[in-house]
Every structure is written in structure tokens, then in C-alpha cells.
Amino acid sequence: MAAAAPVRLQRPLLPEEAARGDFYALLARLFSRAPDGGLLASLAGADSLPEGSEARFARAWRDLTAAASAMDEAAALDEYNALFASLGRAPVSIYAGAYSGTSPVEHPRVRIQRDLADFGLAHRVSTEPEDHFATLFDAMRVLAAGGAGRGPAALAEQRRFFEAHVKPAAGGFFAALGTAPQSNFYRRVAALGDAFVAIESQSFLLD
Fold first, then answer.
1. Cβ contact 176:92 at 8 Å
2. CA 108, CA 143: separation in Å to the nearest integer?
């Protein structure tokens, strides 16, 4: 006889947590593969951020939605491949280990894999290597807003993962992406990601 699945009682998701989860999900999607026509259309038709949003973040969001309206699926795929999937060494590494430093004893992927396992997320948030930014942002999505059969993680747990694996590498990644000659649409993605990570960093300091 099959064992009954455990019942998980989850607290209601606050609007702020849902919004954070949505932005982490968007970044994870944009770095996992090039945006398709549906995603570009959704971005192009998206509303402005609410009044009172942080100015740099609101401007980056406005610029990204404007860029999406001028971008088509084929051009987005070409740009993604030119940035991240070129033969040989890609112009921009999409792996956090390239920006946070690699220990001669323990690669960052090993530490990330261990922390994902601690949260019950190993092999569940992505099939990419553990330090792929799509994997990191999707992990933060689950920690912030719930998913993969669980509710949101405690803020202390979110902070621990963010400060250990996202914050040390994100600034260098977004700077490289924003200045790469091949970057057009993804320059706007980099600006949005950098502004969002800055807000998250400040918020964790205040909590």
C-alpha cells in the first residue's frame, strides 16, 4: 500500500513575497534560455511599477519593457547565443563561480549544491550546473515565494543563501553583461537585475 502524502500547511503568501518571487522567476527564465515571442509580448505589454517604487529599479523596468517591444524572438535568440553560448569561451560567463572566485579546495558549485540539498531543492529547481545564474535565481524564487512543494523559507534562510551565493557574484555578472558589445536587450536585463539585487541586499540588511 502506498504511503499517504504528507499534508503541508502553508501560510498565505504576502504580496511583497509574491512580487519578489515573480522577479526572481523572470530573471531565472531570461538566463535559462532566450525569451520567446510570448515572453517578449508579455514584457512589452506589462504595466509600469507602482508609484513609490525605487527609482533605479522603476527606470530599469521601464527600459526593459520598451526594449521588449522592439525585440523579436529570432534576434533575442541570436543575442543570447552570442553572449552565453558561443563556441569556445563565451563573451559573458553565466556561471557565478566566474565572479565569486573559485577555491582550490572547494568549487562554489559544491557549496551551492550542499545548500540546495539542505533546503530540499537539489536537482529540483534546474537541470543546469548549480552555479548557473538561472539556477540561483530559481532557488531564490522558491525560497522567497514557495514552490517545489514547500512554502516560503524564513527570511534568515533566504538571507543566508542570497549572501553566500547570489550577492558575491551578481554585481560582476551584471557589469560584464551590461558592457558586453554583444549585449542589447540583455543590457536592459542586466540593469534590472542589478537594481533588483541591490534592493534585495538593502532589504536583508534592514530585516
1. yes
2. 19
What does the pLDDT look like over 93-121, one tens digit per residue? 999 989 986 655 566 777 787 877 777 77
Residue 177 burial (10 A CB sphere; 0-12, 13-18, 19+): buried
Nearest-angstrom CA–CA distance, 103 and 85: 25
- Is the per-residue pLDDT at 4 higher than 90? no
pTM, two decimals, is 0.86
Q: Is 42 left (phi over 0), alpha (psi -120 to 50) or beta?
A: alpha
AA letter at 177: L
If one counts every other C-beta atom within 10 angstroms of the C-beta of residue 153, the result is 20
Written as nine digits, the cell of 33 is 534560455
Of 98, 135, 97, whose CA–CA distance to 116 is shortest? 135
Q: Are 177 and 190 in contact (CB under 8 A)?
A: yes
For 147, phi then psi, to 5°, come to 140, 175
Per DSSP, 103 falls in state -
Task: Quote the Cα angle for 79-194-160, to 5°.
Answer: 120
Largest CA distance in the chain: 60
* Contact between 80 and 90 (Cβ < 8 Å): no
pLDDT above 60 (res 3)? no
Given a cut of 90, whether residue 26 has pLDDT beyond it is yes
**pLDDT averaged over the chain?**
86
